[in-house]
Amino acid sequence: MLQTRFTKLVGVEHPIVQGGMQLVGRAELVAAVANAGALGFITALTQPTPEDLTREIARCRDLTDKPFGVNLTILPAIKPPPYAEYRAAIIEAGITVVETAGNKPQEHVDEFKKHGVKVVHKCTSVRHALSAERMGVDAISIDGFECAGHPGEDDTPGLILIPAAANKVKIPMIASGGFADARGLVAALALGAEGINMGTRFMATKESPIHQLIKEKIVANDERETELIFRTMRNTSRVARNEISTKVVAMEKEGAKFEDIRELVAGARGKMVYATGNSDEGIWSAGQVQGLIQDIPSCGELISRIVREAEAIIRSRLEAMIAQPSAQAAE
After folding, report:
1. 0.85 cut: is pTM over it?
2. Which residue ranges form the domains of the chain, and what is each CATH number?
3. Which of 15, 60, 183, 185 is the most buried (most CB within 10 A)?
4. What's the pLDDT tens digit per position in 53-73?
């Protein structure tokens, strides 16, 4: 068993996290992750109202008695969701760990901490990680350029970002972006992280609440099958490459503004991808890690395999590389 400061902080067996994913982080996936000894997060804003979130948390509790959390992502919007009401629903439901992401979460951190809720903040740079640490969060999820969703604007891949953050961040930190297997977990631990966060990998599991054809598409795709949209608007998002994302990138190169592409990138179209299985229906998030995903296991199978193989890499492969002094050299 791999125990780290992060597993002790949040009370789980394995240093593996299923972070918040819009339209994907639902009770059936989160409970399966929890039952396998890892930490899953329900995505609050996938639920249309705070009352729906309360019901989804209850549904998850019916499926597991293990710890799980809720993700609350704070993003700029013309008409922002009622964040304070979602936050209250999380607190009232007795959730003990929250993943925050997006804009400065100070008011949310303060309120969660007041009620004894541990906060893991997801960020894409060392400076933002240090800022979150000063705000009083309990742990950091550091997100490299390889990730699905928003990688920030610094374009720093995990191989640099993780150790750079580990050099300065004092609280427990998990690594996010580009993780799918035991090799990634061992690498993250070696780079200074206390665990890994996986999104795209958990999309391609039996319990993931998306269409089977999209799971199969993730398995079929290689590491090149993503696009970076909204680059010109400094709101970069890594999504699966398809007819729409390729068109959006081309339009941006020609100077298109958000109003020109709004209809193409509408969330309602993305939602239809997961419902119908048509991968060209709309924009949907996926990371470069697609190139490492070869199957669609259950969450239990996936997590036990990663932990088992990680222990084997540490005990056998890496230890075998340490040259033993010869008898002559010892004399």
Report:
1. yes
2. 11-209+296-315 (3.20.20.70), 213-276 (no CATH)
3. 15
4. 999 999 999 999 999 999 999
